[in-house]
Amino acid sequence: MALPKSMRLLAIVTMAIFCWLIFQIFRAPTSLTPPGRANGKPEDMLRDPNLDPTGEPPEPLHRVQGNNYAPDNPNSDRINATILSLVRNEELAGIIQSMRDLERTWNHKFNYPWTFFNDVPFTEEFKTKTRTLTKAEIRYEVVPKEHWEVPSWINHDLFVESANILEEQEVQYAHLLSYHQMCRWNSGMFYRHPALQDVQYYWRVEPKVHFFCDVDYDVFRYMSDHNKTYGFTINLYDSPQSISTLWPETIKFLASHNHHLAEYNAMGWLKDNERRPEHNFKANGYSTCHFWSNFEIADMSFWRGRAYEEYFDHLDRAGGFFYERWGDAPVHSIALGLFEDRSKIHWFRDIGYQHVPFFNCPNSPKCRGCVTGRFTDGEAWLNKEDCRPNWFKYVGMD
User: Fold this and answer.
1) ω before 42 within 30° of 0 (cis)?
2) How large is the C-alpha radius of gyration of the chain?
């Protein structure tokens, strides 16, 4: 028996809907863009260059030949440089770990001196145990009181009130005064210490960090021979809530000091608002990209130069090291991005490094103990904190 006309029409409509659904299923993307990938922009999905074979930087490179880097050689090939660490007595176990790694992978060959800083005298236990880890000279220094104490122009009541606001915004260490003091010291005071007055280059090392790769050349001579000012391994986004007025203060400084701007600066990297637009908005025009300064190999001539000294003094008077939580990483990074030629900033891609929770792990037979190309061993969302794609986009990989 023939179906009524209305039933035939319903069957046709049902079949059409079914076919449309099948079409939509097969045309849908095979994968979804994970959260935090900025709408899947190409630069967010950049293949990690650490997956490619990693070699040494270009020659000239200075290596160990005979006793040219022996610890007791008064005419060694070492240049005016030191390994530098701000560390407390109670962080002894952590700095022992860091020293063992760096001595094993690099410094047992080159024997550069270690310089330890503390805001109180080092204990005999600290000195005894660290001396057993290296053949190189070790210097134990106390930070001068005037370099560490809170400046006279900082209002304590305002500091506490500001810290309460930062804490509500989930900014870490907001109330920890010593953390603010440390950030200020690492930003603009450390290179003024009398023990460093005749030292040009330094390699900053913190407790509880790891080094994974054998490095067979003198990194300080590399910096000098290739006219490099600053070397980094990890490049991150900062917490915009902790530095909300840092960029406005920088713009205020530039209004009367724009003569300090380098011709080939990295302004694009500092101002990018595409990958993490919410960071740029909250930080009032700053991308928040910065070099993670728990690792830095640098020429202190830059910090001692007129541009940086005037910039730091301006920021110091503004009070943001205490009323916000300006860190030495964004302060150093902004200054380098503005006042230095970007070609003088070097990515040490061949130095395997970890400071929890982030890695720099090259693809090299010289590396052991880390996963090639891994950026973090933490939660997956931490991958969006990687700002290297922006650096590669605006500057390149050197």
Assistant:
1) no
2) 26
Residue 273 domain boundaries: 66-394
Distance CA 223, CA 210 (A): 22
Inside any domain, residue 1: no
Indicate left, alpha or beta for 173 from its phi (over 0: left) and psi (-120 to 50: alpha).
Answer: left
Integer angstrom CA distances of residue 217 from 129, 160, 182, 223: 27, 48, 31, 11
pTM summary value:
0.89
Q: Is 103 a catalytic residue?
A: no
- In whole angstroms, give the CA distance from residue 86 to residue 24: 60
Of 295, 349, 360, nearest to 84 by C-alpha is 295
Six-digit token string for 111: 């024997």
Note whether 221 and 77 are within 8 A (CB).
Answer: yes
Strand 114-118 with 81-86, pairing: parallel
CATH number at residue 386: 3.90.550.10
CA distance 319 to 324: 8
Which of 103, 296, 324, 385 is catalytic? The answer is 296
Q: Give the DSSP per-residue string, 177-212.
A: HHHHHHHHHHHHTGGGSGGGTT--EEEE--TT-EE-
Q: Tens place of pLDDT for every residue, the chain, 398 residues?
A: 455 655 555 555 555 555 544 443 333 333 333 333 333 343 454 689 999 999 999 999 999 999 999 999 999 999 999 999 999 999 999 999 999 999 999 999 999 999 999 999 999 999 999 999 999 999 999 999 999 999 999 999 999 999 999 999 999 999 999 999 999 999 999 999 999 999 999 999 999 999 999 999 999 999 999 999 999 999 999 999 999 999 999 999 999 999 999 999 999 999 999 999 999 999 999 999 999 999 999 999 999 999 999 999 999 999 999 999 999 999 999 999 999 999 999 999 999 999 999 999 999 999 999 999 999 999 999 999 999 999 999 999 88
The 8-class DSSP code of residue 341 comes to: -
Question: Is residue 28 assigned to a domain?
Answer: no
Task: Quote the CA–CA distance of 154 and 161 in Å, as a whole number.
Answer: 12
Quick check: is 209 in a domain? yes
